[in-house]
Amino acid sequence: MERQRSFSLKSTRLLVFSFTISSSLLFCFFFSFWLFTDPPSNFRETHLQFNQSSLSVFLTTKKAQTFTSFSGNFTINKGGNAILAHTHLRTSTNSSSGRSVVSDVEKVVRLKNESGAFVERKRVSEAKVTSLAGSPVRKSSNSSEKITLSAVKRKIKRKKSSQCDVFNGRWVFDESYPLYAYSSCPFIDEGFNCQANGRLDRDYLKWRWQPDDCDIPRFNALKMLELIRGKRLVFVGDSINRNQWESLLCLLRGAITDPKKVYETDGRRITKERGDYSFKFVDYHCTVEYYVTHFLVHESKARVGQKRVQTLRIDTIDKGSSKWKGADILVFNTAHWWSHHKTKAGLNYYQEGYQVHHRLDVSTAFRRALITWAAWVDRHIAPGKTRVFFRSSEPSHFRGGQWNSGGHCKESTGPLNSNQSINYPEKNIIVEQVLKQMKTPVVLLNITSLSELRIDGHPSIYGRKPGRINSSIQDCSHWCLPGVPDAWNELLYFYLLSKQKPFSAD
User: Fold this and answer.
1) pTM value?
2) Which of 26, 66, 273, 474 is deepest in the core (most CB within 10 A)?
3) How far apart are CA 221 and CA 396, in angstroms?
4) What pLDDT is stored for residue 14 in this prediction?
5) Looking at the annotation, which residues are catalytic?
6) What are phi and psi of 159, to 5 degrees?
7) HEC profile for 305-343?
C-alpha cells in the first residue's frame, strides 16, 4: 500500500510540472507573436517627473555637493525598432554662486541598425531645475517639477571662457607680437607714434595679455570686419578713447590689401586738434568712428557775479550726442579730464539748470554726470540693435611730479610686478554702480588693473618727433601704438565674437 501511494504522488507532481512548462512555453509564444506583429506606435514626448518634496532635502543643503536624483531606463518604439534608453539625471549644487541648481541629463541609446546589431549613442543635454533658495523655475499644478527630454536640446559645451574674468591675469612675453607694424599704419598720429619719434627699445611691443582662467582669441582682422559688416562702430570719449580708436583702425587696416578702400569720409587727416572722424571700410560697408567729448556732458559758459566763466552742465548730455545715435556698437569713456585742477577744485564750475554750484565735490559731480549719460542711453539706444560698452579709467604713471611739473616715466622698459597692490579708483566704483541701475545692458571693459602694470607703454619723451623732444615734459598718460590699447581691442573683439555677458563677481 505504501509503495502504491508513493507512486501516485510522484505521478501527480510530474503532471503538474509538465502542465506548468507547457503553459509557460505557450505564453512566451503568444507574447512574442504580439510583440513583433504590433504596428509601430507614434513617437510620444517622454517626461521624467520628480516630486518637488523628494528633492527638497538636497536643495536646502548649504555645502556644494553632487547627488543622483534618478537612475533608470525606459523603452519607446520608433519606426518599428525598439530603443532602450538608459537615462541618468545628475544634479550638482554650487554654494559659492548661491544662485541655482543645474541638472544635466545623459542618455545612452541603443538602436537596432539595418544589420540587426545594436549601436549605442550617447547624448548629453542640460536643464536648469530649480534655484537654491528653494523656489522652482517651473511649477506644475501638482507642485512637481517636470523635465521634458524634448525641451532639453543643447549639448553641454561649457568652456571656462564663458564664465571667465578676462580682466584678471598677467602680461606674457610673446615674440609673435605686435599685431601690426607702426610703418604699416598711416592712422597713428604723432603723439602715439613712439617708434617713428625715435624710441629704440622694442620689448614693450612684445607683451600679450593672458587671463588667468581662460584663453582669449588672438585678434583676427578679417573676422572683426565681418562682425561689423554694414555697421557703425563708434568710440565716444576723451583722447584716451581716441588712442584706442586709432589702435583699432591699425588692427583692421592689416586685412585690407587696397589702401584706397579705407578712407576718412571728409578727407581729414588725424590730428589731436580735430575731434570727429569717420573712417569707411568700403568692402565691408562699415565705418569706425570717433567723437570727442571730455566729460560726456555739456561744456558750457555761465555768468558768475560780473564774470562769464566756463562751466560743466552735469545735467545735460554733450551737444554732439546726436552723432552717437544709430550706432550699432558704442564704446564710451570718461575719466581723464576729471582729474584736472578745475574739475577737482569744483569752485563755480559745476552747473545744474541755471544754478552754478559755488563748491561741489568732484565725485558727486562725476556721479551726476554719469547718471545724465545713463538716462540718455536708456532713452535713445535700442538694446536689440546697439551693443554698448563703457571703458573704465586708465592709469597714468607719472613719477616725481605731474605732466606739467616734471613727472616722468622714461626709465621704464618693462611691466610692473603683477604681485604689487593696485588701488581701485573711486571713479570705477561709481561707474559700476551707475551701470547696474540702467535698463540698457552695458559691458564694462575694465582695463584699469591690467593697464596699471604697463608703466613701460607710455610715449614718455617720444610723443614728439626728433628735434622737438622736450625731456622736461613727458606723456605718461597716453599710450604708444602699437601697444597697450591693442590689448583693450582684443578684449572688445572677444566680447563681440563670443557675445558673452560681462563677468560679475556677484
Assistant:
1) 0.68
2) 474
3) 29
4) 64
5) 239, 475, 478
6) -110, 160
7) CCEEEEEEEEEEECCCHHHCCCCCEEEECCCHHHHCHHH
